[in-house]
Known about the structure:
Blueprint: H1 2-18, H2 23-43, H3 55-86, E1 91-94, E2 97-100, H4 102-130, E3 132-133, E4 142-143, H5 147-150, H6 157-180, H7 186-194, H8 198-209, H9 217-246, H10 253-261, H11 268-279, H12 285-297, H13 310-337, H14 342-350, H15 355-366, H16 368-384, H17 387-393, H18 405-415, H19 419-444
Antiparallel strand pairs: 1-2, 3-4
Helix pairs in contact: 1-2, 1-3, 2-3, 3-6, 4-19, 6-7, 6-8, 9-13, 9-16, 11-13, 11-17, 13-16, 14-15, 16-19, 18-19
Amino acid sequence: MGILASVIISALLGALSFGYKSRREGAMGAALGILGGAVILGALGFCTFASDAESTEGVLGVALAGAFAWMFGAGTKAVFNQRAADLGSGEIRTGTYNLSWWWPWLLLSPTLLILVFFLYLPAYQTFTLSTKLTRLGAPRVADRCLSNFSDILVVNPTTVAIIPLIAIAAIWGIGLWNRLAMPGSTNAAIAAAVRPFGILILIFAFYFIFENENGGYRQIYVNTLIISGFTVGLAMIAGLALAYLAFGRIKGITVYRTLLIWPYAISPPVAGILFFMMFNATGGILAHVVDSFGNFVGLDVSLPNYTKSVGLARATIILASVWKLLGYNLLFFLAGLQTVPRAQIEAATLDGANSWQRFRKIVVPALGPIAFFLLITNLTYSFFDVYGTIDFLTKGAPAGATSVAIYEIIRVGVDNGDLGRGAAQSVILFLAVIGLTAWQFRQSEGRISYGST
């Protein structure tokens, strides 16, 4: 039953990704989809449909086959489209030079080799490790199929299968609504406003498929969303605000800019140490200031221990991460503000626009490409580089409320020595970052201009 479901879904997704304008095209897409699903399931030895496999593993096997079917269909379609564009010439014309088809591949070969050996091969090895039962330092390895993944999901396979499908259908419906709405109408405006929230539906859906019993992964998922979301949002808003202020003509502004950029040169662990020295309830700088103030006014006051409060612990991690990112964002926003057309600002001033209107209508749209770049890099930092800050500040306390995905990966894979489960969680985090990045590129189409016109 599971194999039949995987074949049907792979064929459908292959046809959808490759195209189905004609019977021949649809048949080829279906064949490519079935081939893609067979490749990944064959690499796993069809273990997801074995008699002793869990039901959730079967659902994951079908999903994995569908994902590879889509990639095979879309990838082959992209190659055919590029080939059709170059068909008939046999060469690439660039200015006055005529290059054979193999020249681009030759010039790209150093980069491709680096990607293969330092990105694609480690990614493949990580996925292979995620299907094993292995301990750090143990000589033997056993196959676990997709049990390392299913262990962090709810036991009910129906929930794992149905909820993401409902979310994907809702996102597809929003996209269809946006495409069919008449441009300029109220319906089109509402559809465009709702479109960016489609990702929130999927994020909310994933909340219900992660296990919540006995310290399940759902808490890690929530921690990651809260800490990463607030870190990125506050870092970008504060960076833009400070850059706008530092861009003005103020006496000694060069000194201020240099001081504001300095945190960028500090590593995340050092940032964690600095904030620990400030907020530690027993020997921190702020604790000493509060005690001195209490003694001066005759009151018994003390600094609360942030490691005992969920809200304070998360706020401390977010504050340290925002401070670390602030200089990086400031540097790029300052560079972007120098490209804002001064003529447009002066014209808007003559037309009676106030400073807020000029900022919102001229400055912010001009900074769109830089803001998009910073959004991706800030998300990458908040997902991968906060381990050092958390390790020095809270070590995941209180009760795991500040243990995010990257911290849990290292805790499980390195500290506890469960390499297979740690690798499985790293694959999930990797796919989440790829998905968010792809969604950001999708949302930015037609909204961000990289030229002056």
